[in-house]
C-alpha cells in the first residue's frame, strides 16, 4: 500500500475500533458521503453542477471494490506460487549460481573477440572447418557486471543457507515427530489446520496465530457482547488488556505482559459480535513467538510453518524465485528456459554478423543445444 493511502490509517482505525465491525464501519463511511457530499444526488439535466448521472455513483463504488478484489486475488496467487517455489533444493540453487560464474568469463572472451574482429570465423583455433565438426560456443546465460555477480552470489549463499537450515530442521522435525505422542501430534496438526490457531495455540481465554511479522489474538467474549462500546482494549508495546461490559461494570478477560515487544501504534482490534475481540499485533522484531504472554506454556517453533510470503523477500531474491518458477513452467510446456532464451539472443546477433557463414539466412535456434550452464553446442548435421 502506498504511503499516500496509509496517511489516513490512524483516523480510519479510530472509526473501525469504535464501531467494532466492518459493516457499521462501512455504513459510517457511506453515511458521511450521504450527509456531507453530493455523492447520492442525481443529476436531472446536463447543466446540473452537483451530483452524478444515474448509475455513475454506484459504478464508482463497484469499480473501487473490484480494484482491491483484484489486488487481493493476485496476492493470494502470489502466496500460492511462493509456497511451491520456496521448496527449491539448495543443490539446484547452487548449481544455477555455479553455472553463471563458470560461463561468465567465456562469454566476455567471445564478446571481446566479436567486437575486435567484427566477424565469425568459420574455422576453429586448430584451423579445422567448423562445418565438419561439432563445435562448442560458450556464452553467458546472464550478462552481469562484477558488482551484479557479487550481489547475486551473496543472495544465493543466503538462500542456500536458508534451504540447508530448512532441510536440517525438517530432518530433526521428522525424528522428533517419531518420538512424539500420537495424540499430541494429532492435536498439533489440528491446530495448524485451523486459521485461528495457525502457528499458534488455543488457550483458555483466547486463541492466537502468527506470521513472522504479525500475531493475531482472538479473545473470547460472551454472546451478549455485540458492539464495540461494550469492550475496552488497551494495547501497549509490552502489555495487553481486554475487558467487556457485565451489567454496569467491566469484567477483565485478558491482562498480561507480552513476551516480546510490539508496535502499539500500528496494531489494531475489531469485534466479531458474540465471538471474540480480534487483536492484530505488529511485531517489533521479526521472529517466531513461542507464547504470547510471559509465564504461559509455549509451542515448539520447530514444528510450525516457517515459510514466508514472497513479498517479504528483497527484490533480488524475488527475481531469482520468479526466474525458477518461469523455468519450471517453460520446462513443463517444452519451451525455452531463461538461460536458453538469453543464449539464443546472443547467438542471433553473431549469426548475421559480417563474415558469418550463416549471414543472410534466418536464425535457426534448433541448430544449437543449450545446456543449463548457458553453453551452446552447434549441431552441423542440421545445417
From TrEMBL:
CDD domains: p23_NUDC_like. Residues 96-111, 129-139, 372-383 have a biased composition (Polar residues). Pfam families: CS, Nudc_N. GO terms for biological process: protein folding. The lineage of its organism: Eukaryota, Metazoa, Spiralia, Lophotrochozoa, Mollusca. Signal peptide: none annotated. GO terms for molecular function: unfolded protein binding. This is CS domain-containing protein. PROSITE patterns: CS. The keyword DNA repair does not apply. The keyword DNA damage does not apply. Residues 201-293 form the CS domain. One of its GO terms (cellular component) is cytoplasm. Residues 75-94, 115-128, 143-160 have a biased composition (Basic and acidic residues). It comes from the Eukaryota. Keywords: Phosphoprotein. It comes from Elysia crispata. Residues 72-185, 354-383 are annotated as: Disordered.
